[in-house]
Design brief:
Blueprint lengths: L1 H17 L9 H13 L5 H12 L5 H15 L3 H14 L4 H13 L3 H14 L4 H13 L3 H14 L6 H13 L4
Helix pairs in contact: 1-5, 2-3, 4-5, 4-6, 5-6, 6-7, 6-8, 7-8, 8-9, 9-10
Length: 185
Amino acid sequence: MDRLRLFLKCIFMLCCLFGPHASFAVDKQVLDRLFADLSQAEPHEVSVIEQDIMAELARSGSDAMDLLLERGRDALAMGDSQMAIDHLTALVDHAPNFAEGYNSRATAYFMSGYFGLSMQDIAKTLTLEPRHFGALSGMAQIFVELDRPAKARDVLLEIQNINPQMEGLLARIEQLDLVLEGTAL
């Protein structure tokens, strides 16, 4: 834990030196083009475009912030949600306009069972980037977990407007349709 505090303190110092509100490297024109391509993509093109969008969204413009994002995601991949939350909290504290920081922390909160905190971060993500289909997908999953299938379906329909070919999307919508009709097994 002392190593984490030291690491976070170093990141904080770097942020103070280089400015906590630096502009981010996400190129809005590139992102707009990618989302336009995604809405018209053939099924075999979707995953590449999705990856390009996620890569663009993950560009913070700061090596220190990128490191915090990477550490948070690595901790999450190793199953250490609390460590991920710590890293990602430092990230959003120092980069409050970086949507992917909030989205990643929302995932960590979800994995820890903190649905309310996860929803708060999803809302912030969507305020910064309303087309973030990953955040919307997480929101739909939380609504499923909270037994609110109609809300989950509404969110999935929003995703369908952004990313109509998203893998598994139609199956998720159909599953919720069955639940809402009362015919699910």
